[in-house]
Write a structure and sequence with these properties.
- The protein is an alpha/beta fold.
- It has a domain of 238 residues: Rossmann fold, CATH 3.40.50.
- It contains 18 helices and 14 strands.
- Strands 4-5-13-10-11-12 form a six-stranded mixed β-sheet, with helices on both faces.
- Helix 3 packs across helix 9.
- It starts with a strand and ends with a helix.
């Protein structure tokens, strides 16, 4: 298995290079040069497999011979040892053929644990084979950074640098970030939005200032962020349809990686009949799917803060697929997007996307009603992000005969204060976390300031 850039098919990398990277050198994203296709008979035969064996069957073709099978099996199995539910991703029924796939039983109680736990082990595996060290860098509006800190804690040869929007991160998430060991975790506030943080990280990788340190991105621009999530779809599809019955999915848009992973699972052979992209009022993806116009804009603060942004880097991978894996087409489109801030694709490509994808934007009043309704009518306690997905799935499912699965990305307890306001939380509320004063915030777009901050941190002893 080898990988190419979405902007240039001549840029090639093996799995090790892809793991120990961020964007490709040309600004594109790494994608498999070909996708493994699995026969319906083989997929159906997986229905009895335990979770870690299923993970190996799905992921091994993307790894190729970069890791021997025995070591890979052990690495994958170890990635889920900190999960608290023995099913790893249990299903909860909330209605007629309606389900929630609970992805929040990992150590930080969000779906971000899947990619973080796998990436930490893959990065460590490859660094152990060399004298190199890595700086793992990324942007977060809360949960992604927390998951990265937990996963990479005490990993040798690795430090973390985490950018976050100073005024747009919930206090409990910021307190959890600040609880990381300052000897190995550098927090960098940015006076801007989460989109500004992502843009700054992308620019940093193009002008890497730290000689002797491998730059690795913990956001889903790194292929591992997609790879870890393909398994969700196979697990749910096998549980509910034995791998032969079509299944639909509603995906709260906290990342396009999870959405794109569903597309990949279908291309591999899993019978998925629909993927609903469910957004809150930050509806850039909804507008793209309905109007063929993608235009990121200033985000609004909502009840579902993990979706409060509009810049989705993995959309580039999906567009590459729609354009027949044409790097030159994607390069031209992304150059136009970077120049003018909006993007439309060809009508044929847009119609192709609509064959699988639908979307729905849920407003704040609908979110509140859905949280209360699910508690009263299905005995299901859900956080606002899951409520967005569940409502969109019920409103826009194409077939009542096909199971509709909402990806439940965040544990309800992480929204306990809001759930208590809505009268559905029965436990005690945790005290307000104590947030420390952080370092001075970078101005958005201040690449020089970011480079100086990273250089200063690396000069300090671990």
């Amino acid at each position: 298995m080898h990988y190419v850039s979405t902007r240039n098919g001549d840029v090639r990398a093996d799995f090790r290079e892809v793991v120990l990277s961020g964007p490709a050198a040309d600004g594109g994203l790494y994608v498999p040069a070909h996708l493994p296709v699995i026969s319906p008979e083989e997929i159906a035969s997986w229905s009895w497999l335990p979770f870690d064996e299923l993970v190996w069957r799905v992921i091994a073709p993307f790894v190729g011979d970069a890791i021997d099978n025995q070591a890979l099996r052990a690495l994958l199995s170890d990635s889920y040892k900190a999960f608290s539910h023995r099913a790893i991703t249990p299903l909860q029924q909330i209605g007629h053929n309606e389900w929630i796939l609970q992805l929040f039983h990992g150590p930080t109680h969000t779906s971000k644990d899947f990619a973080a736990q796998l990436q930490a082990r893959l990065v460590s595996h490859f660094l152990e084979q060399s004298d190199e060290a890595a700086l793992v860098v990324g942007a977060t509006n809360g949960d992604t950074g927390i998951a990265a800190i937990q996963a990479f804690a005490s990993r040798p040869k690795v430090r973390l640098a985490i950018l976050y929007p100073r005024n747009e991160i919930p206090a409990d998430r910021l307190a959890a970030l600040q609880a990381g060991d300052p000897a190995s975790v550098q927090l960098i506030p940015v006076d801007g939005s989460f989109d500004d943080c992502q843009t700054l990280v992308a620019r940093l990788f193009r002008a890497w200032p730290l000689e002797g340190l491998i730059p690795v991105c913990f956001n889903s621009t790194n292929w591992v962020g997609v790879l870890a999530q393909i398994v969700f779809y196979f697990h749910a599809g096998l549980q509910l349809g034995g791998g032969t019955r079509p299944v639909g999915f509603s995906v709260p848009a906290a990342s396009f990686a999870e959405i794109y992973a569903g597309f990949i699972a279908q291309k591999m052979g899993l019978p998925i009949n629909q993927v609903i992209v469910s957004t809150n009022s930050n509806d850039a993806l909804h507008r793209f799917l309905h109007r063929n116009r993608y235009a990121p804009h200033a985000s609004q603060r909502t009840l579902s803060p993990a979706m409060d942004f509009s810049l989705y880097s993995n959309l580039e991978r999906f567009i590459w697929e729609l354009y027949g894996r044409s790097g030159s087409s994607v390069a031209a489109l992304m150059a136009q997007f970077e120049a003018c801030g909006e993007l439309s694709i060809g009508n044929a490509q847009w119609l192709q996307a609509r064959v699988l994808f639908d979307s729905y934007a849920v407003d704040e009043a609908e979110v509140r009603r859905e949280v209360i309704k699910l508690r009263a009518q299905a005995a299901a306690l859900v956080d606002p992000h899951t409520a967005v997905g569940a409502l969109a799935g019920r409103m826009h499912r194409r077939s009542l005969g096909a199971p509709m699965v909402t990806l439940g990305q965040i544990a309800p307890a992480k929204s306990a204060a809001l759930l208590a306001q809505l009268g559905v939380w029965e436990g005690e509320l945790a005290p307000q976390p104590e947030v420390q004063d952080g370092p001075p915030a970078l101005c958005r777009g201040d690449l020089d300031g970011l480079c100086q901050a990273l250089l200063a941190a690396q000069s300090r002893p671990t």
